[in-house]
Write a structure and sequence with these properties.
Pfam families: MFS_1. Its main location: membrane. This protein has 18 helices and no strands. The radius of gyration is 21 Å and the shape is globular. The longest helix has 32 residues. Helix content is 78%, strand content 0%. The protein is mainly α and 468 residues long. It folds into 3 domains: 193 residues, Up-down Bundle (Growth Hormone, Chain: A), CATH 1.20.1250; 54 residues; 206 residues, Up-down Bundle (Growth Hormone, Chain: A).
Length: 468
Amino acid sequence: MSSNDRLDSRLLGMIGVILLGGLLGILNSTMAAVATGTLATAFDTSLSTIGWTSTGFLLAVTATIPFTTWAVDRYGGKRLWLVGLVLFLAGSLAAGLAWNVGSLIAFRVLQGFGAGLLDPLVLILLARAAGPHRAGRVMGLMGVVLSLGPVLGPIAGGAVLDSLSWRWMFLLSVPVGAVAFLLALRMIPADSPAGSPQGRLDVLGLALLGPGFAAVVLALSQAAEQGAFSAWQALLPLGAGVVLMIGYGLRAGRVRAPLIDLRLFVNRGFTASVTIMGLGGMAVYASLFVLPLYYQQAHGHGVLAAGLLMAPVGLGGAIAMPLAGRLSDRIGARGLAVGGAVVAGLSALSFTQIGAGTSEVWPVVAALTVGLGMGCFSAPTMGSLYRTLPPSIVAQGSSVLYMLNQLGAALGVAVVTLILQTSGDVITGMHGVYWFAVAMIVIVLAAIPLLPGKPQAQAVPEELARTS
């Protein structure tokens, strides 16, 4: 392996610092999700009202991502990263000191604005630092955070709630974030603002795309809460979101430098990559959503024990992604992705045969192999995506990937919730959820042949590269 392919110590240090900052948002959002009942009791309010502490955070993240696409080149990646950390830490400290439910929701929104800067910047900064020849292994390392974050969050949240006040779920982010800030000052190289390739901020495009996408995510969240896609609480934001997104699409075709160039989707490798990651996210969140319910209702475990038993999903991904990502830099993504999708699909299929009396060993093993399979197709897919993008449109590609992942997660939770609410019991519901997961993985298998071939084969339309 040549010296150009190795990850030197300085790059590894930068990767570690970036992943530490990226982990903050994932952990905080998933920790807060398990505290809904505790927070409702503490503020003497309804579960639907307290649910806005999570929904407000999610919507703020989603609405901020398109701005990050433009701002990273306008102000520089390091500067924007530090601003994102400051916003997130300010929101964390304020949320930990919140005096009523309204202030908590407002401060969670502030956290979301910070996370909306940090989350896509994780992808952008790592992709730029790695370059196309090391994209797979760097995305594999990032996959450790993506795999473990959603699993460790509920475990950490349960541990905090068992022994400390709910306020510490937010306050603990402050010292960790302060360390991440100081390390970022030292480890992330300064990059002079180059001026955004899009020129001046497309304010109208931002006003259409950010709120439009957030409205669609809100519609899916409301569908999950109401237990029906036909509820007016879901249809109203869905209609508004679709109108705004159509408006953005029409505008993007007319302006010279749109916020996100829809011609990205002309490249079939890019389209296949973001589709696979979105569908994979739906399948993962299906497992993360239904497994705790299975362990709690079918086996009588508490929140913390159910979280620990769910951990093999994330552990499998954390093991597989660095290895698969590294290997994909040498042999390409397709073979690894096919193997991973087959393993994940068969493992998901095995869950349809598990019942209330099944020994817990079998769902734990199946969860581990689901994670291993997902990791084997996720990291190579992400690496192949960044091998198809010239440096000038890495920020746009990263934002599209992250937004579609958000959409996939929200849609997955909404569908899973509907399946569970229309099932007679948790076992029937779990079987239905995993049939849904199997269907998503079958579509992933169908899309894998569209991924780029070996790393040397990179194909981005020249016109898109020039105009971006």
